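Moderator note: this is an archived Q&A kept for reference. The question asked for a predicted structure of one protein chain; the sequence and the answer are reproduced below.
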Amino acid sequence: MNQVSKQTYKKVTKIMLATTLIASFSSVALAATNHKRSHHNTRAIASKNANSNDINGVKFLLGAGVGTGLSANASSNSFTILAPNAGLDARLKLGTGIFTTTRSSTLGLQATLGVGANSIGAVSNLNPQYSVNLDFIQAFKVGATGYVKLGYIIGGGLTIKTRDSGSNGSGNFANGNGDVLGGATQAKRVQSLESSLASANNTKGVAQVGFDTANNALTRIVNNLTSAQSDQNAAASNLSTTSTQYNSAKATLDNAQSQYNAALQKYNEAISNTSGLNAKVPDLQQQLISAQTSVTQAKAYLDTTSQKFQKVYAAYNTAMNNARTAQAATQQPGACAPHYVMGMTVNGCDGTNVAGRNNIAAQAALPAIQNAYREASSALDGAQNTYNNAVANRQKIQNELTAAATGIDPSVTSSLTEATSKLTQAQSAFVPISTNHTLAELKKQNADNSVAALSAQKTEAQKKVDDAKAALDQANANYENLNSEYQKAQEALSAAIAAASQKSKEEQAAEDAAKKANSSPIILPTAKAGLIAFFGKHQAVSLEYQYYFRNTNQGLASSDITLNYVYYFGGN
């Protein structure tokens, strides 16, 4: 077979050389004839060359083209042109030609040698091909200058095509279904499945870590929520108790205030009806009025300061709750990891993410609100002391006024003293009860907020657990499917090896002979036709269709179509 191939190449080489020599001699002969004619008719040629875009004389050419293979199929109902093995068809050509220009067109005859490569299908290697062609060209002038010429090209020649036998999927065996598969392909499939199986196993491990992390985070949040709900129940119970105490103390205070007002009115009436008052009585009455005003003002200031304290205390509790919530958020999976995916990656909070920044901001806000809380508490203590001093001063003046007054019914004085004492006791008892009630309301509100926040965190954490569980289930399913495919591929590969080992030497020899025959070069006569356009004297573009005769190989197209560019140089 090697001898035949060498002889074939020698014959092709001789044919190509002979064709080239014939084309060259023809070009020289035509050039000589043209020279002789031009010698006898110099004036006519001078007139013809007046047009700088005319193409005359011997030209050398260098060109390139690219295209694809085509196959024509005819049937009783239709005729179709297909590209069943459409692949790259590229070529370079070198040659010579002789041209002459008439009044209306340019005529030319050119001989070319070509070398190129073509591919059979999308996955084939590039296969060398060689050609020799003799073409006739006629192009007609377009416009007055003749810079553009449009025409046709026809010709014929020989083409040598080779095929790459290294990618034909040799090494066949029969699988369990009776289909023929490539052993190398099956081995690659096993190797690919091994890599995929390892990747799936790694994905399964990562998914398991993600599920465990998300589930642990959910457990922590559930524990925190249980504790917060317990605090909420305790706060609700405490609020109920303080509300009862507050309502009772408020009713007692209102009753004491009413009794005091009635006793004071009777006392003032008794004083106004008594003529035997001491000279100090009017002054003491004014002092008593002033002392009562001081008590009222101190009470108002105490109430205002208590309200401010309650607001500051509420803000203080909110800040503390925010700090605890922000710190708890940093403990959730992925809260501090910018690239967290289903709890698979956990990084420490460093202020470069939302949870970290929120925690830092919440902790930074604590000192200021703590200072405000201490100042408000101190102001409340001062207001309470001012109020107590005002009440004591009023009682002192009341005692002096009672002593200074004469002729007043002792029961009136006694009633006023008793009412004043009860009012003082009721006011002293009401202030801490009111404060405790306000604090109980704030604690209940904070507990409600904590439960709501943790409930939202639980919902989010539960979703992450569900997503992680779904990812884990999917990873396990993918692993099992790949493992099943891998086992089947291993069995098929083992069967392929066993089948290949049972082949007879005669069958292998026949197969090798078929491979060699299949890879031998093919010499095909060709015919071409196409359209050509000249631009000036040196450049041309053509679209050519070439048909291959005696093509009996199913792997090769029966024809091809190419787009070519040619540059002409030399000559006139």
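Archived answer notes: The chain has a mean pLDDT of 77.
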